UniProtKB/TrEMBL annotation:
Keyword Protein transport attached: no
PROSITE patterns for the chain: HTH_TETR_2
Source organism, top-level taxon: Bacteria
A Pfam family of this chain: TetR_N
DNA-binding segment(s): 32-51
Protein's name according to its UniProt entry: TetR/AcrR family transcriptional regulator
Length: 200
């Protein structure tokens, strides 16, 4: 049974969904109030009647974009049968940012972490938390793979997790900066090799 949203909740959700791609593309500093009113067709008063300020909209937009990434990953994780296949999901999903874009502007973690590094502590903390959760998810899969006998016992879960994340996010950054999606493909092959080396 689904709970029916109130009019205020629907308006708030509409603002988040409509502006999420703008924040992810232009960044917090680059997104103006006019961008928000133009995109939503709402007045400044309507937007600030639902959110305290632009930062609160940006945080909600980040959460929304991140939930789309997590949802796509979880969908593929549920379909994978082995732990190596589950780890390969990250490579497969992040490859689609260029092939079949499902979020306007690319990876929200990378975009937010880079922009908010020295300018917005709340957004920086959100990105850091997302990275920690991502790392934990990979570590848990590797440990489960070791326990099941699929992976070697001497693997270092945290090192592998950090390496995978760094390669994926670095590959996306290079591909975006150079406008060459094939760069990401090459980096993701290294991720896949890393996963292959975990197997017994």
């Amino acid at each position: 049974m689904t709970t029916k949203l109130s009019k205020a909740e629907r308006t708030r959700q509409f603002i988040i969904e409509t502006t999420a791609g703008i924040f992810n593309t232009k960044g917090y500093a680059g997104t103006s109030l006019n961008d928000l009113t133009d995109a939503t067709g709402l007045t400044k008063g309507s937007i600030y009647g639902n959110f305290e300020n632009k930062e609160e909209v940006a945080l909600a937009a980040f959460d929304y974009n991140l939930s789309k990434v997590k949802g796509r990953i979880q969908q593929h994780l549920d379909q994978a049968n082995t732990y190596s296949q589950k780890l390969l999901v990250y490579s497969d999903v992040y490859r689609t940012f260029f092939r079949i874009p499902f979020i306007q502007g690319g990876c929200p973690i990378l975009n937010t972490a880079v922009e908010a590094d020295d300018t917005n502590n709340l957004l920086k903390d959100r990105a850091a938390k997302a990275l920690q959760q991502w790392k934990k998810g990979i570590i848990d899969l590797i440990k489960a793979g070791v326990a099941s006998g699929e992976f070697k016992e001497d693997v270092e879960p945290e090192r592998i997790a950090l390496s995978m994340i760094a390669l994926i996010e670095g590959g996306i950054m290079i591909a975006q900066a150079t406008n060459m999606p094939t760069s990401l493909d090459k980096v993701l092959k290294t991720v896949e090799l890393l996963i292959e080396q975990l197997k017994k």
